[in-house]
Amino acid sequence: MDKRPTDAAGTQLPARIGRYRIESELGRGGMAVVYRAVLDGPRGFAKQVCLKRILPGSADDPLMVEMFEREARIAATLQHANVVQLFDFDLHEGTPFLVMELVEGPSLWQVFGAACAAGRPLPPDVACGIVTQVLAGLHHVHTRTRDGKPLGLVHRDISLHNILVSRAGEVKVADFGIARATQLGERTRTGVLKGKLAYIAPEYAATGRADARADLFSAGVVLHELLSGRRRTPPATDAEGLGWVLHPEFQPLEELRPDLPDALAAAVRSLVARLPGDRPDDAAQAAALLAAAQPPAGAAEIARCLERLLPAGSTPPAEPTRPGSLEGSGGTLPTPSPFDPTLTRRPTGAELAPPLVRSEFTPDASTAVPEPPAAWPSRRHRALWVAGGVAVLIAAAVAVWIVPGPGGAGTAAVHLRLRPHLGPLAGAAGRAGQGLRPSLHGPDPADGRD
Question: What architecture is domain 16-100?
Answer without folding.
Answer: 2-Layer Sandwich (3.30)
